[in-house]
Amino acid sequence: MALYREQDIFERRNAANAAKQALLERFKARPAEDDPQVMARKAERQAILEAREKRNAEKERLRQEKLAREAKERAEREAIAEAARIAAEEAAAAEAKAKEAEEMDRISRLLADEAERKAKRDARYAARKARNGRMPPPRPA
Q1: What is the pTM for the complete model shown?
Q2: Where are the annotated segments for Disordered (predicted)?
Q3: What residue ranges do the domains of the chain occupy?
């Protein structure tokens, strides 16, 4: 079993100074900006960034093309739907006009038939009156 021993202030100060010295040495050991390895890493990172920017630009271009293509297709579908709607409205209008003409024709035939029946009835009435010997007064037209 290990015994725990508290450090006194001198030991703590020496440990802190040693840590600071190690950090300073590590910083001084770092290569300079003009070191070939540092320059190579920097160039590699720059190449990676440029490649990423190219990929992103290509993705954006493809996305814009896709949006434009979808908008064009949607506009075509809407134009086709609009043309179909207009054709359906025209067909419905033509059908309504044909029905109206048919109804008017039917009404005119009914009126003609009724006029014909009235004329026959008036003729029968006049013939009956003529047979009985008396004539009705003439009706004004």
Answers
A1: 0.45
A2: 52-75, 115-141
A3: 36-132
Cα–Cα distance, 58 to 71 (Å, whole number):
20
Count the alpha carbons within 13 Å of 70 in the hemisphere toward its beta carbon. 6
Residue 38: both structure tokens together: 């540092």
- Report the alpha-carbon distance of residue 22 to residue 16 in Å, rounded: 10
Burial grade of 46 (CB within 10 A; 0-12, 13-18, 19 or more): exposed
Per-residue pLDDT for the chain (141 aa), expressed as one digit of tens each? Answer: 456 677 788 888 999 999 999 999 988 878 778 888 889 999 999 999 999 999 999 999 999 999 999 999 999 999 999 999 999 999 999 999 999 999 999 999 999 999 999 999 999 988 888 887 666 666 775
